[in-house]
Fold:
Amino acid sequence: MERQKLLVLVGPTAVGKTELSLLLAEALHAEIISADSMQVYRGMDIGTAKPTPQERKRVRHHLLDVVDPDESFNVADYVALAEAVLNELKSRQVVPLLTGGTGLYIDALLDGFLFPDTPADPHIRTELEEQAKRDPLSLYQELQEVDPVSAERLHPNDLRRIIRALEVYRRTGEAISALQQKRAQQQRPYDPLYVGLTRDRKELYSRINERVELMLRRGLVDEVKMLLEKYPHQPTALQALGYKEIAGYLRGEMTLQEAVELLKRDTRRYAKRQLSWFRRNKRIHWFDRTSMDDSQVKKAVLDLWERFSPGPK
Structure:
């Protein structure tokens, strides 16, 4: 089976993926597939730094605005949708350019399994820990229903592992036992060329701070206010970075300045976690955006692609 070649552009938030992805897609006549766990939600535009209408006119984008914020969406849903897009692009002989900062989605799609040490989701973890305090046995009973294989393996008092198994299930929609066995031996039909972007840390943090200020000027507070009014029951999507901080301000829990500083801090921490995730992937060709501009990186990546996928483009 000839595997489908695709270009994968990764890196932390605010590193400069969007403009470079557009330049590369235009040069390769590619279409962009978003790998962002929050850009799938309709109405969450400013806080997710979603590509603008003008940018979407330049290059066709996929997997933006897929579900409403009060609808459930997990990595299994993403993989199913992304596979359909990749099949469609293959049928049209179009180069796919997968780009985004959600490493979990990218790994699940391209490697066909989730790493056992998938980082914890603090919101889901907190919910489960609170449930454990109230009724620890209910956790084990829930695990028996959603993942009987793991339940058989774990003692009912092993709350740490039970919570972990339920957390994975709630986050991905699949049992951890299935993820550990299911696709590990399965060869995926994709052949990715990975490109990663980095910057000097001080420069990256400065860009993050500037991005937050730009989001505010573009109307982030009004966007969050509208979403809270439309979805008053606080769906998981509104616990996302950029939304939960501003929501705290709108509920009177802090001043706007405090919310903004919290958002900047949380975004810097998120970028650090993203870099840690991607650096585990030894297949990534890294480019330092502090020392290389868009045109230089574009040329280098296109040279890589030419060697990786020779032939007419």
Notes: The mean pLDDT is 92.
